[in-house]
């Protein structure tokens, strides 16, 4: 089982390291945004195969993962398999990957 933990201010440097080469065009992946909204979205994260996986939960959307950050192309299938195993055991997951605007 993967070890997801609540997002804390002390995790900023870890996120900055993973996000430094990440070219995102949305505010949702910035540490500041994740941190500010962490309580509303019950934001947690885990390191999975050298990538950060963010897990969120809302009463409207249920539980979902955001796109893994820092995942090498060769590891995406393995990460997705691990996350699908979690989704399978949790009926609160309506879909696997999402952002606030798009479901995958």
From TrEMBL:
Listed SUPFAM superfamilies: Acyl-CoA N-acyltransferases (Nat)
Signal peptide: none
Gene3D superfamilies the UniProt entry points to: 3.40.630.30
Record-annotated Phosphatidylglycerol lysyltransferase C-terminal domain positions: 22-84
Pfam family, one: LPG_synthase_C
PANTHER family: DUF2156 DOMAIN-CONTAINING PROTEIN, PHOSPHATIDYLGLYCEROL LYSYLTRANSFERASE C-TERMINAL DOMAIN-CONTAINING PROTEIN
Name under which the protein is recorded: Phosphatidylglycerol lysyltransferase C-terminal domain-containing protein
Organism annotation: Acetivibrio straminisolvens JCM 21531
């Amino acid at each position: 089982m993967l070890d997801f933990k609540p997002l804390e201010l002390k995790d900023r440097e870890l996120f900055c390291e993973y996000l430094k080469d990440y070219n995102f065009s949305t505010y949702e992946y910035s540490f500041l945004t994740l941190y500010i909204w962490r309580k509303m979205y019950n934001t947690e994260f885990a390191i999975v195969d050298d990538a950060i996986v963010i897990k969120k939960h809302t009463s409207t959307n249920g539980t979902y993962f955001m796109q893994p950050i820092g995942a090498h192309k060769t590891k995406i299938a393995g990460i997705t398999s691990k996350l699908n195993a979690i989704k399978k055991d949790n009926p609160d997951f309506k879909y696997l990957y999402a952002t606030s605007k798009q479901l995958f």
